Predict the structure.
Amino acid sequence: MFGIAAEWANKIVRCLDTELSLTRLRRTQTLEEVAAGRTVLITGASSGIGRATALRIGAAGATVALVARREPELRAVAAEIEALGGKPYVYPCDLTDFAAVDALTKQVLADHGGVDVLINNAGRSIRRRLDESYDRFHDYDRTMRLNYLAPVRLMLALVPGMRERGYGSIINVLSIANLAGAPGYSAYTASKAALDALCANLQVETRSDNVRFTSVFMPMVRTAMIAPNEIYKNAQALTPEQAAEAIADGVIDRPRRIAPILGRFTVVLDHLIPETLDDLRAKLFEKGV
């Protein structure tokens, strides 16, 4: 039953790894050259992709502002970064509390004068069918608050300084589901799609200020977020460290999007034959795939 979903996930992971390897062969800069001396704020930095990204960027010489709810875990990540020679700062914050987000950005700006790179990694994923969601509007509300509105709040506070200094990068960690579809994850994919749509427009407005927005359409990553889903138990997945390398690629190259070619191809097909793909997705969804 779950074989098709697992095999599709395996192909996507392999494709992204191949594409990024080719991009790296053409590269003229290293992460150390781009990130050293810059201030990088990472949300969801206490575990998983955020932790691995913080370690990678901290080791490259950046000042890393670590943001998450759990202070003890953030302190542990900070200690690891210090052991690598990096410069971490810990900022415990519940990103769904907008007053707390405002206090966070005020403190970060006071401490560092500005942020050069914002990595919106923190996220909430909910797998729930429509017929199980009729009385659960709060699922959509809390997912949108963390996955979309919190990044918007951060950007509105930090982008002005980026524009004034003539440099800035915003890296948004999205999902391959935004390209290939994911019935059952509607609240999650909608919140991530909103962030991508917003930044596609902001990218145009800030281009002359040398501020760039990158959407990373991340394939499956072996973190606590996917652990409850039996469908993907045996599927190939990126490690958090591999995911961090994809984010590092975004920091270095600042492309508009990083996405597996299979995901991009699915978007093209969705425009050409949407009903056919909908029929296929519906059949797979009914089978529990």
User: Anything to note?
Assistant: The first strand starts at residue 39 and ends at 43. The chain has one domain: 3-286.
